[in-house]
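[Q] Does anyone have a clean structure-token version of this?
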Amino acid sequence: MFNLNEGLLYYIFGNEVPALALFGSLLLVLLASYFLGSINSAIIISNAIYKEDIRTKGSGNGGMTNMLRSFGWRAALLTLAGDLGKTVISIFIAGFVFGFQYVGGISVSEFCYMAGLLAVIGHVFPVYYKFKGGKGVLATSTMALVLTPIPFLILFCVFAAVYGMSKFISLGSVCVAALYPVVLHGYFAVVFESPMPGLISLASILLAILIVWCHRENLKRIGEGKERKTYLRKKKDE
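[A] Here you go.
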């Protein structure tokens, strides 16, 4: 019987998956993840509903925070749904083919993490939009939630604390991104009493570097006192 935790390749071949089938499937999954990740919900929604390109508004970034500032909560939530969906689908395809391999409340499937990484890379460097996309925070958060729910909750609490004190979404995002591989390493050490698998470690470190790099201008503006704060509700004096 097919078991989603083990995946399609195991169902077909058992423990001895031919190298050609393994690498061919991996290539297709990674390509699919990148092309799915390249779909930018913010750009599509801003053009379809508001008849304006989000890249010409606010910070010029094609992400949820700029949608919130430029068009409000409805636009932000629609963007959230789109970014959640494409990342979940990318990871599900990898899990369906290779197995999710959930153990101790966390996925140990290196292929699922690589699919998530490619979806985030597609979001940041989308092939459909001249490789100019968002900053990958929502896509990475979705990946963390699906594959590592307990570490995700820890990191969400960190984000909430940083945002609550500073009102800078960018600062909270950078702090959480930098801590993601650290928390993940710690969780593996506690639950499995062993280091993380190599590809999972690589994916988490690359994601951290990518998100910090994408926020380099935000960090510069924070240092200069020019970064715009984001409030979940309008201030009374506005």
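[Q] Thanks! Anything notable?
[A] The chain has eleven helices and two strands.
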